[in-house]
Design a protein that fits this description.
Length: 583
């Protein structure tokens, strides 16, 4: 928890002033019972002959103390809130900033749902604890200690009751604290699973509804929710058990104080006014102790959250900029030299990959499902690092480049096409934030998207909705291609990015790329032979290795994998044509 306090640096003056004001509140609160004691003693001693003027003066003094205590407390609460919210904001910014530096492998280790929980729930827990600490860390101990000292001075007999009650509470805390911490750690892991369930359900709601799996998803959600509920109850049991026990000790202490005070008054050792003051101090001691226990319970809960936050902040990105990085990519040539790669600690999924792609070439990649085609191209912009060998871009090992320089030179359109909330133009300008309207239209013409964009009521200012829900799968793919082109890359990678468009549109896009982007290296991963048949060369992948490299005609002559794919697809086309003719 305390390691995270560096994110409250700019609010340290607030964190310093708030406890001082809280101490002021305590001081004035401690004065009130003494004044009240004097008033009671005057009334009980003189009865009807009491000095009214003196009582009024004491009452005014008590009122002033109460007002000063209120002002100090309210000011401290406001200042503490500013510090607490600022601390939480800085901590969230630090987490998001750190996550943005992660490679895919770092994110895979935590999972998206877990990161969301840490940025939201865990930060809120730590923020609340910080707020409670700067308001009560000094206030409660000072209030308890001062009230106890005053009470002991007023009557040792009465105050001796605390010698029994306070140690009982301390012992209970020492025993319960570690158990509570362990249980809350388990609860937070369940929270991760719960968030993952919600995220998956909402992200894939169309699939859920199209397969009529609503009841199944409800059941899965209920199971996750019930699991979290049971874990939370298990964690809260310590606190739920502690509250009635604390009340029992508290009321037992009050009863002991009343009994001891009654005897002291009857023996003439204490006045009624002193009893009133001691009783008020007893309540302050007990309230301070309760707040301290609540604060400790909050610390126990937030300790697990703080550790989870610290795990993210301490995570070292697998992929970082080298010292003295290369700041320019000379051309779009690519070379793989004896590359081996696998995810995490798993086995190699790419083995002995060696090939060269010249700058400006259009290269197709094809192979059976699971042959690691996508994994291969993700090594080019260094989304992952190789285990062995080298990947060279522009004749330089990708590990020697500045990451921004390398990734600015490589545009990727992934299998899962992602658009963001906003207009079509705003989405396209992810590729180039300064792109003019003419540049947007030119990119869309190459991607065969210009016509359908203009057909929209608002054209390029049409709002796409969250995730691009207002466009079809094929339209989304074409917009993503146009967005990638706006980067003016040296290398363009299309990872099965035209699967949702018809073959005629696919051919238009390839033709546009060849004519308008002749100097750009183009890599097309496809399942359809027609999408890559006119490429300069085609790489056949099989079981994580390069099976063959050649042109369409060469591979048809000698490669069984390519020939089987081509014949099966051609057979499907012929059958479709025959059925169309019969109709």
């Amino acid at each position: 928890m305390f390691k995270l306090l560096k994110y409250a640096k700019e609010y340290k003056i607030y964190a310093f002033i708030s406890p001082i004001l809280m101490i002021g509140e305590v001081v004035f609160e401690l004065m009130i019972p003494r004044v009240m004691s004097d008033i009671v003693d005057i009334i009980t001693a003189d009865g009807a002959n009491s000095d009214v003027n003196l009582i009024v003066k004491l009452g005014v003094r008590m009122f002033i103390y109460a007002c000063l205590s209120l002002i100090c407390g309210a000011s401290a609460a406001r200042i503490a809130s500013l510090a607490g919210m600022g601390f939480g904001s800085n901590l969230r910014n630090a987490l998001i900033g750190k996550v943005q530096t992660f490679s895919f492998s770092n994110i895979d280790r935590f999972s998206t749902a877990s990161l969301i929980t840490r940025v939201s729930t865990d930060v809120t827990s730590v923020q609340n604890t910080f707020l409670m600490l700067i308001r009560g860390f000094f206030r409660s101990p000072i209030q308890m200690a001062s009230a106890l000292i005053i009470a002991v001075k007023m009557s040792k007999r009465v105050s001796s009751v605390f010698a029994i009650s306070l140690p009982l509470i301390v012992i209970a805390l020492i025993i319960a604290g570690p158990i509570a911490l362990k249980r809350f750690k388990i609860m937070l892991k369940k929270f991760d699973n719960f968030n993952a369930s919600i995220q998956e359900n909402l992200t894939n709601i169309r699939v859920v509804k199209s397969f009529v799996r609503t009841d199944y998803e409800k059941k899965k959600y209920n199971e996750s929710n019930e699991d979290l509920f049971k874990s939370a109850i298990h964690a809260e049991k310590i606190l739920m058990l502690g509250e009635p026990l604390l009340m029992l000790v508290m009321y037992g202490t009050i009863m002991g104080i009343v009994i001891a005070s009654t005897k002291a008054i009857s023996y003439g050792e204490m006045s009624v006014g002193n009893f009133t003051a001691i009783f008020a101090y007893v309540m302050q001691i007990l309230m301070g102790f309760i707040f301290t226990i609540v604060m400790l319970a909050q610390i126990f809960m937030s300790e697990a959250s703080a550790k989870r936050i610290q795990e993210v902040l301490n995570e070292i990105p697998d992929i970082q900029n080298p010292e003295n990085p290369v700041e320019k990519v000379e051309d779009g040539s690519i070379e793989f030299k004896n590359v081996r790669f696998g995810y995490g600690e798993g086995k190699d999924i790419l083995k002995n990959i060696s090939c060269r792609i010249e700058s400006g070439e259009m290269v197709g990649i094809m192979g059976p499902t699971g042959s690691s085609k996508s994994s291969l191209v993700q090594l080019i912009p260094r989304l992952y690092d190789v285990r062995e060998g080298q990947v060279l871009v522009g004749g330089v090992d990708v590990r020697k480049y500045d990451l921004c320089t390398l990734r600015d030179a490589v545009s990727m359109v992934l299998q899962k096409n992602v658009l963001f909330s906003g207009t079509i133009a705003e989405n396209l300008r992810w590729g180039n934030k300064d792109a003019s309207q003419e540049e947007l239209e030119e990119a869309c013409k190459i991607a065969d998207a210009h016509e359908f964009v203009l057909a929209r009521p608002d054209g390029y200012n049409q709002d796409l909705g969250q995730g691009g829900v207002n466009v079809s799968g094929g339209q989304k793919q074409r917009l993503c291609i146009a967005r990638a082109l706006l980067k003016n890359p040296k290398i363009l990678i299309l990872d099965d990015s035209t699967s949702a468009v018809d073959t005629a549109t696919d051919a238009k896009i390839r033709d546009g790329l060849r004519k308008s982007k002749a100097d750009v290296t183009k890599i097309i991963i496809a399942q359809r032979v027609s999408s890559i048949s006119d490429c300069d060369k085609i790489i056949i992948m099989d079981n994580g290795e390069i099976n063959d490299i050649g042109t369409h005609e060469e591979l048809l002559q000698r490669n069984e994998i390519y020939k089987d794919i081509y014949e099966s697809q051609q057979k499907g086309v012929d059958e479709a044509n025959e059925q169309g003719g019969d109709d």
